[in-house]
Design brief:
It is a single chain. The chain is mainly alpha-helical and about 120 residues long. The protein has one domain (about 1-105): AhpD-like (Up-down Bundle). The chain has helices spanning about 1-10, 15-25, 30-40, 45-60, 65-75, 80-100. Helix 1 packs across helix 4 and helix 4 (about 45-60) packs antiparallel against helix 5 (about 65-75).
Length: about 120
C-alpha cells in the first residue's frame, strides 16, 4: 500500500509497474491495486486510511498536520506505524528519484502492469 501510494505520488512508472506485479503475486486483490494505481479510494476503510496518510506525508513533505495523524490513528494505527509510513516514504522516494534520473525501463516481466502518470 505504502510503496504504491508513494510511487504514484512521485509518478514513478517503473515502481508502479513492478510493485503492481509484486502485489498481484502477494494476492493483493486487483481492485485494491487498481484503485491505488488510479489514486482512487480503497474499498477497505483501514487500507484507505493508510493510503490517505501516506499520500498526505508525500504531499506535505512530512509536514502533516495533527488532524491527519489523528485520522490515521483513529483508523487503528499507532505511533510506530506512523513512523513506518515515514520510513516507507523515504525508502520509496529514494528509489523513485533514482529511477527518474536513470530513466529505468520497465522489465519485461512487469510490462503487463505498465503504468503512466496522467
Amino acid at each position: 500500500m505504502v510503496l504504491l501510494s508513494v510511487s504514484r505520488e512521485n509518478r514513478c512508472g517503473y515502481c508502479m509497474g513492478a510493485h503492481s506485479v509484486l502485489a498481484d503475486v502477494a494476492d493483493v486483490p486487483k481492485a485494491v491495486t487498481d484503485a491505488l494505481r488510479a489514486g482512487k479510494p480503497l474499498p477497505d476503510p483501514r487500507l484507505e486510511a493508510l493510503r490517505r496518510f501516506t499520500t498526505a506525508v508525500v504531499e506535505a513533505r512530512g509536514w502533516v498536520d495533527e488532524a491527519e495523524v489523528a485520522a490515521f490513528q483513529e483508523a487503528g494505527y499507532d505511533a510506530q506505524q506512523v513512523l513506518e509510513v515515514v520510513l516507507g516514504v523515504g525508502m520509496k522516494t529514494l528509489s523513485n528519484y533514482t529511477n527518474h534520473i536513470a530513466g529505468t525501463e520497465l522489465d519485461a516481466p512487469f510490462q503487463h502492469r505498465a503504468w503512466r502518470a496522467s
